[in-house]
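On clarity, I found the account of how folds are encoded harder to follow than it need be. For illustration, here is how one protein appears when written out as sequence plus C-alpha cells:

:::
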Amino acid sequence: MTDSHAWFSRMRFGLFVHFGLYSTLARHEWVMTTERTSPEEYEKNAAYFDPDRFDAADIARSARQAGMRYAVLTTKHHEGFAMFDTALSDYNSMATCGRDFVAEFVQACRAEGLRVGLYHSLIDWHHPDFTIDQHHPLRDRADVAQLNAGRDMARYRAYLHGQVRELLTNYGQIDYLFFDFTYPDPMDGKPGKGPQDWDSAGLLAMVRELQPGIVVNDRLGIPGDLVTPEQYQPDAPMQRDGAEVLWEACQTLNGSWGYDRDNLDFKSPDLLVRMLVDTVSKNGNMLLNIGPDRRGAITPVDRSSLAALGEWMQLHEGSVIGAGAAGIPAPSGTVFTRRADRLYLHLLHWPFGHVHLPDMAGKVGFARFLHDGSQVRCSEIDPEQQAMNTIPGGQPPGTLTLNLPTAQPPVAVPVIELFLTTDGMAGIAEDRTEDIAADGMERATED
C-alpha cells in the first residue's frame, strides 16, 4: 500500500451504483442467470434501454450530501452489457442510446470532489467465448459440452483485458477499481473460474502500470489492496495471517444491488448509521449501494435514505471521516471511534442517566454532544458509595461517568465527543490505520 492509497482509509464512506441493462427488467442484477435466459434472448432488451432520467450530476451530488467521499459505478456487470464507449463490442450503451455513462459519472464525481471508482465484472455471460460454468445462464442445458467446445477463454481474456485497458486509459485518473469476482471451486458438478481464467497476475500488472496510484480490491483471486466482505458486518477488525488489513463492507439498502422493483425489505436509516459507525470502529470502510430504476433515476426510497444519512453526517462526520478504531473496549450498546485526540462514543441504544467508562478518569478534558456542541457533565463516583433510593452505587476506581439527559437527542445515533488529555493520549493505544496500510495490504486476498 503506497502513500497514494492513504485516502481510502481516511474517507470511510462511499456510494456504490449498480446500473445496467438489468435495471430494465427490475428483478435485480442476476436476473439473466436466475431466469436461465439465453444470451440471444436477453440481448433483445438492449433495444429498450434508454435511461432518459440518468443524471450523473444528481447521483454525485446526492453522494456528497450524504457525507460520502467516493463513488463506484458498474461499468459492466455479469450480463456483459458495457455502460461505456468500448471499441471491442457493439453491446454497449453508446451503441444503444448514444451515451457513455462512465464518462458522465467520472466527470460528475470530479465536479463534486469525490474520488472515482469503477466496478468491472470478470464474468461475461454474453460473450461467445466465455465458457459455460456454474453461474452461466445456460448451465442446465443438456448440450453444455457441445456449446463449450467452440469457446476459447484465451480470446475472452484478451477481451477482458482490453476493456479494462479502455477504462483505465480513456477517462483520466481512476482512484479505485472493484473487480467482481473469482469462484475457483466446483459447484453442483460444474466448474468455477479462478485466477488462471482471468490471468489475474497479468491483469493486475496492467492495472498498476496504467494507473500507478489506484486501489484494487481482492476479487481477482490474488492479493489486492483490501478485502471486501459483502452483506454482513465483521465482528472485529479484519485480519489475514494474523495481521490487520484494510477492508470495505459492501452493503445494500434492501438486499438487491440492481433495481428490484418488488423488493421492499429496506434497512432503516438509523440501522444504516449504526452499520456505518460499527464499520469505522473496526477500521473499515462502508460502500453503500443504490440501484437506479430503469429510467436511471434514484428511487424515492434510495433518495430518502441518502438524505437521512446526510442529515446525520452533516452533524457527526468528525466521528467517521478520518476516524478509525479507538483501541479501547466500548461499553455495552456503544461503539468507539477515534480521530487524533478526539474519542467518539456512539450511543447505539439510549441509556438512562449514565454511561460509565472504565479507566477513563483523568483522561478526558471535556465532553460534549457532537450534534449541538453542548457539554456532557463528567464525574467520578466514589467506589465506596452505597446504592440506596436515588443514589447510584459506586463505580470501580478510575471510572469516568457521563451524566446524560433523560430524553435522547433528536438524531439517529447520538455521539459524545471526548477531548483526550495528555494522559488520555498516552493511555490509549494509537490508531493503527496507517500501519495497517503499510504492513498488511500485501496479505489481502479474496474474502
